Please model this.
Amino acid sequence: MVKKVLVAIATSALIFCGIATLNAADKGPAEITIENPDAKKPKPAYFPHKAHQDAGLACAECHHGMGDDGAQVAYEEGQAIQKCAECHNSDVLAGKTKGKDKLDTLKGAFHANCLACHKEVAEKDEAKKDLKKCSTCHKK
Model:
């Protein structure tokens, strides 16, 4: 009887560890440097990916897909994630704009998404006012 209980406990522990490992796996790199290969004056952006995850941002806040008609398709768990430049370029998204931000460039896409969020967070929390500064992402 004791053996059965020990085997059940060990099996449960292995299953739990396996599930925890699967959930922790493939969440992307902890840090990302975003470089725009088409920029005339490149200003790489530093992106603390893990810090954004730890802050509770959902993957869909940044990640999405593209439908056959070029429209944005909402991210679903398990969806393949490509580099942003795969779609955010002048060949794939020619002429697509969102206000002043051109979605057919990496700069425009990131500024449209990231900068809007940074401004919103900075306005809500005085301690995070520096999030509005370019140097938050573009390190010297």
